[in-house]
Design goal:
Strand content: 5-15%
Structural class: alpha/beta
Number of helices: 14
Shape: elongated
Helix content: 25-40%
Largest sheet: 6 strands, parallel
C-alpha cells in the first residue's frame, strides 16, 4: 500500500517520524529540517480526516523519563508547522486514553519512545563485556515485542516516515509493523523518496555512474567502496582517505592524515577496480598546510610528494578541474563526504568545486544526483546548492548502510 492511495478518514494512523532535532541550552530548535521534511505525510493524514499519532525519539536518554530529551520541548513548533494544536501524551506506553480521545483531523505527539529501553532492545546500566549482558539483552528483546504490540494497539494503520532510523530494528521503526497487514502499513512521503532515490542510484541508474566518496578514513568506508565497485563507472576518492591510496601507490604524504595499516586494503580496491573496469579518480595535487589551522601557511603541491611537516587539507586546482570534468559528464551521481577540511573557510574550494560540478551535471546534463552524509549535506546547504541537486538525503547511518548493500530493517518491515 502507498500513502497516496490510502484514505485516512476516521482512521487512527501511527506515524514514526525522526524528530531528533538539535536544540540549544534553552531547548530552542536550532535546525527544524527533519520536522519540516515530515510535514507532507502528517498533513495528508490530517487533511483526510485521520486521527494522527506521532512518535519519535530524541537523543540517547538513559532513564525514563529524562526531561532533557522530552519531546515536549518541540511540541509548540510541531503544532505551528502542522497548523493544528497537537496534543501531548506524557507516557508513550500509557497513551490509550489520549488516543481514544482523538477526533478526526486531530493530532497527538507521544513522549520520546526511547525513554523505554524496550524501544532499542538494548540493556541499560550494564556493559557489553559484563557476564549478564547477553541474558539481559535476550530478556529485553522479548519485552520489546510487547512494547511494540502496545504501540501498535493505538492505531489502525502504521506509517514509517523515519528513514534516518531505518537501519535500526527498534520497536517503533520495525517490530511493530508485524502487527499490521500489508494493506495497513506503508512508507510516508519522505521515506518513499529516500527509498526511491537510493534504488535509483544503486539499481536503476543511467550510465555513466559516478560515486564521490570522501571522509577521513578508508577503514570506515571499505564496505561502501567494495559494494559501489560493482555499480559505478567512476569512483572519485577525496578527503583524508585519499592519502592512504597515495601511500599505497608509493607516494609521499608528509603529515597528511592516512592509515598505513589500510595500505593493503587500498591496493586491493585499486586492483578490483581494474578487474571491473572502474575508473578510480584520485587527487593529483592538494592544498597543503603547515599545521591544522585555518590560518596556517599553505602551498599547492603534488599529491604524491607532500613535504614533511605539511599536510593535505583540500584537493588542489588541477584535481578540482579533473574531477569536475568526470562529474559533469555523468548521468547518475552519488556524493558522500567532503573533499577536504571544508569547515575551515580557507580549505573550502575543493568541496565547493565538487558541489558546483554536481549541480551543473544535474541542471545542464539531466543527471540524477543523490547527496548524503552529514558533511556533504552541510556542504550543499552551506554553498546554496541544496535545491540544485536531485535529492538530499535525511539519513546518515541509514543511507550509508543502504549504500553498503545492507537490507534495512525499517524498509524490510514494510516491503516484506
Amino acid at each position: 500500500m502507498t500513502i497516496d492511495k490510502f484514505n485516512f478518514s476516521g482512521k487512527r494512523a501511527f506515524v514514526r517520524v525522526d524528530f531528533n532535532v538539535p536544540v540549544d541550552e534553552n531547548f530552542n530548535i536550532t535546525d527544524d529540517t527533519r520536522i519540516v521534511a515530515a510535514m507532507p505525510t502528517l498533513k495528508k493524514i490530517i487533511a483526510d480526516g485521520g486521527r494522527l499519532i506521532i512518535a519519535s525519539h530524541m537523543g540517547r536518554p538513559k532513564k525514563n523519563p529524562d526531561p532533557k530529551y522530552s519531546l515536549k520541548h518541540i511540541l509548540k513548533h510541531v503544532s505551528t508547522c502542522l497548523g493544528v494544536d497537537v496534543k501531548f501524551a506524557e507516557d508513550c506506553a500509557k497513551a490509550q486514553d489520549a488516543v481514544a480521545a482523538l477526533k478526526n483531523g486531530e493530532a497527538l505527539l507521544l513522549e520520546n519512545v526511547r525513554f523505554y529501553a524496550e524501544e532499542e532492545g538494548k540493556p541499560r546500566g550494564i556493559e557489553k563485556e559484563d557476564p549478564g549482558y547477553e541474558a539481559a539483552k535476550k530478556e529485553l528483546k522479548a519485552s520489546q515485542k510487547e512494547f511494540a504490540k502496545t504501540l501498535a494497539s493505538y492505531a489502525d494503520v502504521y506509517v514509517n516516515d523515519a528513514f534516518g532510523t531505518a537501519h535500526r530494528k527498534h520497536a517503533s521503526t520495525a517490530v511493530m509493523a508485524d502487527f499490521f497487514d500489508a494493506g495497513h502499513k506503508m512508507f510516508g512521503y519522505l521515506m518513499e523518496k529516500e527509498v526511491t532515490a537510493v534504488e535509483k542510484v544503486l539499481n536503476n541508474s543511467k550510465k555513466p555512474v559516478t560515486a564521490i566518496i570522501g571522509g577521513s578514513k578508508v577503514s570506515s568506508k571499505i564496505t561502501i567502496i567494495e559494494n559501489l565497485l560493482h555499480k559505478v563507472d567512476n569512483l572519485v576518492i577525496v578527503g583524508g582517505m585519499a592519502y592512504t591510496f597515495v601511500l599505497a601507490k608509493g607516494g609521499k604524504v608528509g603529515d597528511s592524515l592516512c592509515e598505513p595499516d589500510q595500505v593493503d586494503t587500498a591496493l586491493s580496491i585499486l586492483n578490483k577496480a581494474d578487474e571491473l573496469g572502474v575508473r578510480i579518480v584520485l587527487p593529483t595535487d592538494c592544498l597543503a598546510a603547515d599545521r591544522f589551522d585555518n590560518d596556517a601557511n599553505t602551498q599547492v603541491v603534488d599529491n604524491n610528494n607532500v613535504p614533511d611537516g605539511w599536510e593535505g587539507m583540500d584537493i588542489g586546482p588541477e584535481s578540482a578541474k579533473a574531477m569536475a570534468s568526470v562529474i559533469e559528464s555523468s548521468k547518475t551521481i552519488l556524493w558522500n563526504g567532503p573533499a577536504g577540511v571544508f569547515e575551515f573557510s580557507n580549505f573550502q574550494s575543493g568541496t565547493k568545486a565538487i558541489a558546483t560540478a554536481v549541480a551543473n551535471a544535474t541542471s545542464k546534463n539531466g543527471a540524477f544526483s543523490l547527496v548524503g552524509g552529514g558533511d556533504s549535506v552541510s556542504a550543499v546547504n552551506q554553498f546554496g546548492f541544496a535545491d540544485k541537486v536531485s535529492y538530499v538525503s535525511t539519513g546518515g547511518g541509514a543511507l550509508l548502510e543502504a549504500i553498503e548493500g545492507k537490507i534495512l530493517p525499517g524498509i524490510a518491515a514494510i516491503k516484506g
